Amino acid sequence: MRVAIAGAGAVGRSIAGELLENGHEVLLIDKAPTAISVERVPQAEWLLADACEITSLDEAALQRCNVVIAATGDDKVNLVVSLLAKTEYAVPRVVARVNNPKNEWLFNESWGVDVAVSTPRLMSALVEEAVSVGDLVRLLRFSHGDANLVELTLPPEAALAGTRVGEVDWPQDTSLVTIIRGTRVLTPSPDDVLEAGDELLFVAAQAREEQLEDLLSVRREEVSD
C-alpha cells in the first residue's frame, strides 16, 4: 500500500515509521527544509514541497496513493490537503489530524475526510477507557455513514457474559469487530463466548450507541421474568 503523509514533524515521522515496519510504501511531504530529515526515516521517500499546491501533489503522484494522511500542526492545511486528495486525485482513504477540538466539526466528507483523528479527544477517550467498565467510550469518528469506533468493557454482572456472539441480537447498524481478552486479540466468530472483562470494539452508527450500551450493561438483569 502506498501512503502519502503531509507533515514531516514528529507526528508524521512516527506514523511513517509504523507504516514502514508493516511493509507499506511511504512518502513524507513538507514545505519546511528543516523538517526534511531523511536520516530519521531513511526508508521513506521525501519531498520538499507545499502539500496545498496542485503542482506539488502532481509531483508526489498522489493519484497512485491508497491513503493520504494530513498530519500537519495546522488544521487549515490539513483540510486543504484532504479536500485536494479526495476531489482532485480520488484517493480512496483520507485521514486527517485535528489539532484544535473546536475545528473537529469541519473534518467531514464535505472536506474529503474519511477519518478524523483528534488527539485531545483520543487521549480523553483512552483515559475514560482505562477507568470505565460498562460504559461506552467513543474512540474514533468515521465521516462516511456517521459511524464511530466505540469500545465497551463487559462488566462482571453483565447479562451477556457467557453468551455466544452469534446468539446476541445486536442492534442494527452495529458490527463487533474485535474482542480484546487479556493479551489476546480475537476476531469474533459466532461460536465465541463473551466473557466478563472482555474489551469489545464495535463500528456503530451514532444513533445506535445508546442501544448498544443498554444491551451490554448490567441493567438488563433488572428485567423480571
> For the record, what CATH class of the largest domain applies?
Alpha Beta
Number of helices: 5
- CATH domain topology of the largest domain: Rossmann fold
The number of E-state strands comes to 11
CATH superfamily of the largest domain: NAD(P)-binding Rossmann-like Domain
Q: How do the helices and strands follow one another from N- to C-terminus?
A: EHEEHEHEEHEEEEEH
Strand order in the largest sheet: 3-2-1-4-5-6-7-8-11-9-10
Measured distance between first and last alpha carbons: 54 Å
Q: Write the CATH architecture name of the largest domain.
A: 3-Layer(aba) Sandwich
List low-confidence stretches: 219-225
Mean pLDDT comes to 86
Secondary structure: helix percent? 10-25%
Main sheet overview: 11 strands, mixed
- The domain count comes to 2
What Rg do the Cα atoms give? 20 Å
Beta fraction of the residues? 25-35%
- Structural class of the secondary structure composition? alpha/beta
Domain RCK C-terminal: 137-218
Domain RCK N-terminal: 1-117
Pfam family, one: TrkA_N
Protein name: Trk system potassium uptake protein TrkA
